[in-house]
Design a protein that fits this description.
Layout lengths: L12 H14 L3 H19 L10 E6 L4 E11 L11 E3 H7 L8 E5 L2 H32 L6 E9 L6 E5 L2 E5 L15 E9 L12 E4 L4 H10 L1 H4 L3 E9 L3 E8 L6 H6 L4 H9 L4 E6 L4 H8 L7 E6 L6 E6 L4 H5 L4 H10 L2 E6 L31
Parallel strand pairs: 2-3, 11-12, 14-15
Antiparallel strand pairs: 1-2, 2-4, 5-6, 5-8, 6-7, 8-9, 10-11, 13-14
Helix pairs in contact: 2-4, 5-8, 9-11
């Protein structure tokens, strides 16, 4: 069967329709998509025709997806006659130039449309690669613009692909593909294609630059603040500020602790987070694949807060051994039969309490306490600035 010939003035509507659908699918505006294609074609032509970078206006590309315009032209220099140094890609003889522009003269430039077959022959491969790069840049820009406002928030994502070897997951968020790295997945978790999960957006590129390599949307299921966002979704009292989450600590896939306080004396912060028949806390636990979550009361008094943070263990006494902000530490005295519970499996309960409170926690059984355990370091008072202030200088 003979190949179908391309007729001059043929309707390229299908091309424009496909581009419009692509823009819609990727969530990218048609204008941005057209700009990326325009940039790719201009760069490819300049490279193939050996134009210098500063000769920007010698390649003209006009693309409008909505109006179905796709024009590619070269501004060729008018020469008097063909000579041995004639470059047909860049030059046109006066006789031919006058047919395009009757006012053409030697030394001027004439806008010469490029035949699509010629363009395909000299530049299509490079342009294709550049257009693909342009699409990637446009997608990164779209992510920056759309999701920048949602940094530090939790969103729903559809699992579309799992890499067999690395187990990295490809997610779809607002029609955009995002990679969830294996080390950002909950330990022991097995994701499946078609599964909808909650992810925490822990990093977003806020500024877009053409060709920038480090544009990214970083998502995580191990970030401790995912726990906070999940409770906000389940608890209206947290979402509206009646109950406040003051601190979070987490061992992903194993256990988390959150410290909460109520800003309304009539609202029980613990009860609000746990919910009727544990419905709210169970919903959070289910989303993080059975990870145990402890909800404890936040207290302004550090000693009381440390006691709360070590629950479910009972605490006899807390001694703040070093109150200085950068070296905060304490000794915690517990009944002998509560020592293992206070420390937790592999020290997990003590570690979570330390991260929750900001104190280094040393737990001791009541029978093992010695007088030196009660020794404390005084709070360091910053030395006053001995240099005279500018206002004081010159004062008699």
């Amino acid at each position: 069967m003979a190949k179908r010939k391309t007729v001059k003035g043929e309707d390229y509507g299908d091309i424009y329709e496909n581009l419009a659908l692509l823009a819609q699918e990727k969530g990218i505006s048609g204008e941005i998509l057209a700009e990326k294609i325009k940039y790719a074609i201009e760069k490819s032509l300049k490279s193939n025709l050996h134009f210098d970078d500063d000769e920007e206006d010698f390649v003209i590309v006009n693309i409008d997806i909505e109006k179905k315009i796709f024009d590619v032209s070269i501004m060729k220099e008018v020469i008097e006659v063909v000579d041995t140094l004639y470059e047909p890609e860049k030059e046109i003889v006066l006789e031919e130039a006058i047919k395009i522009d009757p006012k053409a003269e030697v030394g001027s430039r004439v806008k010469c449309p490029i035949d699509t077959k010629l363009f395909k022959r000299i530049a299509a491969k490079n342009a294709k690669d550049l257009i693909k790069q342009g699409f990637s840049n446009a997608e990164r820009q779209h992510l920056s613009e759309i999701w920048g406002q949602y940094e530090n928030e939790a969103v729903s994502a559809l699992v579309t692909k799992i890499e067999p070897k690395t187990l990295h997951a490809t997610l779809e968020i607002n029609k955009n593909e995002v990679i969830l790295l294996r080390n950002e997945q909950i330990p022991g978790e097995t994701l499946e294609v078609g599964q909808v999960i909650k992810v925490y957006i822990s990093g977003v590129s806020k500024e877009y630059k053409e060709g920038e390599k480090n544009q990214y949307l970083k998502v995580s299921r191990t970030d401790k603040w995912l726990i906070k966002r999940l409770f906000e979704l389940e608890c209206p009292e947290i979402y509206d500020g009646t109950v406040e989450i003051k601190a979070v600590s987490r061992v992903p896939g194993s256990r988390s602790k959150i410290a909460v306080k109520s800003n309304d004396p009539n609202v029980d912060a613990l009860g609000a987070c746990i919910g009727p028949q544990k419905s709210r806390i169970n919903a959070v636990t289910k989303e993080v694949k059975g990870e145990k979550v402890d909800v404890v009361m936040y207290c302004e008094d550090d000693e009381e807060f440390i006691k709360q943070a070590l629950k479910p263990a009972d605490v006899i006494n807390v001694i703040i051994t070093n109150p200085n902000p950068d070296k905060r530490s304490c000794k915690v005295i517990v009944p002998d039969n509560q020592l293992s519970l206070a420390i937790g499996n592999k020290g997990q309960n003590a570690w979570l309490a330390a991260k929750l409170t900001g104190y280094k926690v040393d737990i001791k059984a009541e029978s093992a306490v010695r007088p030196e355990d009660y020794e404390t370091v005084p709070l360091e008072v910053p030395e006053p600035d001995t240099e005279a202030s500018p206002e004081a200088e010159g004062t008699e």
